[in-house]
User: Which sequence fits this backbone?
DNA sequence: CTACTAATGAAGCGCTCCTTCGTAAGTAGA
DNA sequence: TCTACTTACGAAGGAGCGCTTCATTAGTAG
């Protein structure tokens, strides 16, 4: 029983304007006739709508394409550049940011290294530098910012506070949403990084087109992100996907099989240890293979639990260890095959390190879409 | 990027007609002025819409309510009685059916006993008798049927075939949807019984108002139903919620703790065994209490897995054993409290045996709503 | 230079909703 | 029983939006 509001004539115009914007966002520049055909409106009506959208600044004319038969047609395009979205990935060692236009087309990316145990201010400063860098690279100013979406490790509250973060000690307890709202004069969204990665994979990556996706962040810490019915599933308390907390799922200590393997050279930094084991396994080293086997044994238990609960179309493997997906995928598939009712597709991430920022951009773009296409407010003029 | 179709004037009228229907379905009979206020339309426009809906048969006039100041106002109501929905629960020992009007208001219920190992034809005949009984009780004919929604035990395929049913041997492999379409000349929907029970609890029962619900069917066989974002979650292959298949979740053999307890008298029918244990536990019998403890220990593992994955607002306990929820709830809560990131509310089902048929009715009503309110087809006249 | 193609722009029409205002049908009180 | 008051009804006039039609315009092809 959603909205009980009946429509005015102006409501109809609004609907048609939004339909036109949608059509223009979906395809490149379109002529008036093409636009009319797609929206089902007559040409004269379409013209009127287009004029109004031009006046409001949502749409602009581009030069007609030459070399066609007949009189050259006007072409219109959505002014995706009239604002920008920023996605931020706040990790332990790096703060990444990406800037996109309103269509989610990425225009600039930056990275700022930061130490895991850096004090709070330092990390916030890194965020500021990362975002400023993107703005500078793309020749924008903070006034062009419509939305900043940030993903970070740790368990969040629904309001955007950080309930707990193992990877970033200074993070726990912080009201990140409030801090970012102080820094940026625009809409601010906070989400868990694995969830954003999941979204990116579902939109642009390995799981493109799938409505129900389980994303596994395999790395020194396990994490997951769920896409259900095409949307990020965060749960009532924003704590969905935390199956790593269940001992029986055997995820918590699983990475230790790789980190503690005897093929890892003495004195290796903890974040590099698993890489040696995975590399050795790829070369057929029996001890490393056994370690990978034990790792996948454990990994498969929690994964099977998620698959059995949700029956997703696809499982995507991301995170640090997924660079060695060639070593992990086959044994993981084999175990899941035995454990699952219906075997989902299992794929490796195709987006790599930029996964989270892209997901953040997609998250921001989704939010914008919802605001645009489901609100009852009339279209406002764009500066 | 849903629909790119722009609107005509008639589209506006259609929108307003649907809004009016929606308003009338939500509240009882409404006067023209009340209707106009709720939909935001002006009175004259509302009148025109109402006239049209009357002509098409969707709405009818009821006598004005007496005793009011001023000139008595016309009142209109949605003709919920111009069709009916039937929900069917096909279980091992019983086939239940309920008949409702188009608003989901239940008008008749029937039950047909049937043996678990009865041949296929016998069970289908029981379904026919159960539905016919409902029609007779409410004075309807098969021609009034708009939708039949059936819930049954077992694993389904997305198309409504029965992939596997442990409780009803003759069921496995049956194309239930096709069979029911032969029997009833209307829309036929098939769903897993636990999912329908979950829907009923979310709409009318213990979890009313919650958008994300985990329903546990606790009984001789474990089953689950998930409501995510207010809708039944069936998964890509309609196999969601089958965590009982995961040995580590410790669900599969859990009921044995109750069935095999030594307080159960020799020679008790297997379906009654657990009842003795639960009753003895309620009386404080130490052996029974220990059995219940072991049962809940196991139950909590799989439940914690689902809660950690989904972070639902609520967990509802239904199924045969939930009649003894007083014995089970406290220890279950205690274990979940320790295992879960965010503790959900845990409640007992309030709908009892009629849970599945009610869920089936709600499922059918949802389907009808979607057809009505999201289709672009104009309103058709009702007979 | 002419024929052809395809988009443009203006005119006229019909539908849907809105506002306004006089009228009708009740109740409450003298 | 009559009058005043309240509330709904119904008709009239007006504005906005989209549709169809048709003459006009700006290109390409030969």
Assistant:
């Amino acid at each position: 029983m959603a909205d009980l509001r009946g429509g005015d004539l102006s409501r109809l115009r609004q609907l048609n304007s939004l339909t036109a914007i949608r059509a223009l966002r979906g395809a490149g520049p379109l002529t008036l006739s093409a636009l009319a055909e797609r929206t089902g409106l007559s040409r004269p009506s379409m013209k009127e709508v287009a004029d109004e959208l031009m006046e409001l600044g949502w749409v602009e004319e581009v030069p007609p394409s030459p070399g066609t038969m007949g009189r050259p047609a006007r072409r219109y395009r959505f002014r995706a550049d009239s604002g920008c979205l920023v996605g931020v990935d706040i990790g332990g060692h790096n703060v990444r940011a990406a800037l996109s236009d309103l269509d989610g087309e990425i225009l600039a990316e930056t990275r700022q290294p930061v130490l895991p145990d850096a004090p709070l201010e330092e990390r916030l400063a890194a965020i500021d530098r990362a975002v400023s860098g993107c703005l500078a690279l793309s020749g924008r100013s903070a006034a062009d910012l419509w939305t900043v979406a940030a993903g970070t490790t740790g368990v969040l509250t629904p309001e955007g506070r950080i309930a707990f973060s193992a990877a970033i000690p200074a993070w726990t307890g912080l009201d990140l949403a409030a801090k970012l709202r102080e820094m940026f004069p625009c809409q601010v969204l906070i989400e868990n990084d694995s969830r954003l990665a999941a979204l990116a994979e579902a939109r642009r990556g390995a799981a493109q087109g799938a409505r129900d996706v389980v994303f596994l962040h395999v790395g020194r810490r396990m994490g997951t992100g769920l896409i259900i019915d095409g949307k990020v599933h965060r749960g009532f308390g924003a704590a969905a996907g935390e199956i790593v907390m269940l001992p029986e799922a055997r995820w918590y200590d699983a990475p230790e099989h790789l980190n503690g393997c005897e093929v890892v050279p003495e004195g290796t930094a903890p974040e590099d240890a698993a890489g040696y084991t995975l590399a050795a396994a790829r070369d057929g080293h029996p001890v490393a293979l056994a370690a990978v086997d034990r790792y996948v044994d454990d990994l498969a238990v929690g994964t099977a639990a998620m698959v059995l609960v949700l029956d997703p179309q696809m499982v995507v493997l991301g995170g640090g260890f997924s660079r060695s997906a060639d070593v992990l995928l086959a044994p993981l598939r084999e175990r899941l095959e035995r454990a699952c009712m219906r075997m989902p597709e299992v794929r490796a991430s195709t987006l790599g390190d930029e996964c989270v920022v892209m997901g953040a951009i997609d998250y921001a773009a989704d939010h914008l879409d919802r605001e645009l296409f489901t609100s009852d407010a009339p279209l406002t003029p764009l500066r």
